[in-house]
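WARN retry 2 of 3 for item q-0093 after timeout on previous attempt; input resubmitted unchanged.
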Amino acid sequence: MNFSMEQYQQSANYLREQLGGFVPKVAMVLGSGLGYLGDQVEQPIYVDYQNIPHFKSSTAPGHRGRLVFGLLEGQNVAVMQGRMHHYEGYSYEEVTYAIRVLRLLGCDTLIVTNAAGCINTQWQAGDLMLITDHIKMFSESPLRGENLPEFGTRFPDSSQLYTPKLRTLARNAAKKLNISLREGVYFYCYGPQYETPAEIRAARLLGGDAVGMSTAPEVIVAGHCGMQVLGITLLSNMAAGILDQPLSEQEVLDAAETAKGTFSSLIRTCLQML
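OK item q-0093 returned
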């Protein structure tokens, strides 16, 4: 399906009614097990996805399914505690619907996070990775269908989806905190099954450093509507075939819990430096 500009405006208008004049500037999408950062927002205003016109519900483990508006490190933020995924049965336009609504509310920056499998055999589970680019070649685009010129052009450039100056900011934040921050390419696979060892070998040959089931669709839409983007990945586990053990969603959630302090510090410092 294609959403109309009227539907996006209906969602935005509903949220404006809940916000009482508050205007968010930084949108944050928090991935599996990482939603706790939304609990640190000051003067919070909570809105469940299910109450917002045309929004879908998030069903993935570790996703709360609500928006949190408020202050974090002095920034006016809109935090998505949980995201929608294509594997939940949603179209890519439904997966990315919230990004466009947050853009209409005033957000000009997107900080997107995820937990992903580590493809790069020189790294290890628990590392944080700054996303420099992504690979998404084997599924349709979230921009498929009628273009809404109010958001962006029909054929948008994708050469700098992950904003260079925000990548520099993240490097400086990590250095300030003495945190090791890997840099690499996020390889998108839509799941819900984890990848096979052969698929991971192929992804490595193509230049992928981490593999996951989110992020790329939202970033494409954010870039289309003129938002600056910063992407951070928690390498929650080694990808299929690297270690002689099966993969599980509990492993992902446990890794997110372990990385809680480091991840929160990095994101909060990035917000301070914006």
